[in-house]
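Lab notebook: predicted structure, single chain.

Context: the supervisor wants predicted structures on file for every construct in the current expression panel, including those that have not yet been purified. This is the next one on the list. No modifications to the sequence; it matches the entry in the shared construct table.
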Amino acid sequence: MNKITSDIAYLDWFKRSSRKLFVFLYFQPGLVLSILYLVMSLSGLLYLFVLGREFGLEIVKYLELTDFLMTFLATPSIPLAQLAAITPTFIAFYFSFKFVEKEKQKRVVLTGWKSWLLTNRLFYKINPLVLVLFTTLFLPPILYAGLFAKDEAQRIISSEGERYDLDLVNPVIVNKKIILEIKELSVITETERFIFFYSSNQKQSLIVTRDNIASMHITSQNPDN
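Prediction complete. Output recorded below exactly as produced.
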């Protein structure tokens, strides 16, 4: 590859890389779904990790194989965040390329520090297609997952949303007391074997296996829901 020293050359590099990628994906369409699935799964894992950390839980270590494969379903809005990021990113690149084409027609010769800046940009060393894929496929859903997890944790701690009463099959010890019923719990998240709760009364998190839940019913609900 020749050294990139201008926006025009950088644009040409992007076009060449795009053509090669499209040809490759034409013969390997399953790769697109595999990459999207990987990104969604990593985003889901990050969401559960950040959410659990807010409550002092290591949710990830409780995951079964099925949970790992479907972690992005912990919050369906993660895929929506990715889709929402693709459109404005490509629009931004489109207008950037239009601007570069106009600048090319002006044929303005720059000197001094402006010339050095335009011919030594750091991103000239990075394939532009990599930048596009990173800013659309990876960065938005991952950032959103972390931020949404923190927001969701605060919502649960504030006792917003639905709260439940539990009747247990086998007694558990909570604050050195043996109990078979737990009231006013908010669901943090669920896995194949466990349900994670937060008790606003006790100010602590609880982990209950599904097999140990005899019944679970809503006792209160936020007026806005």
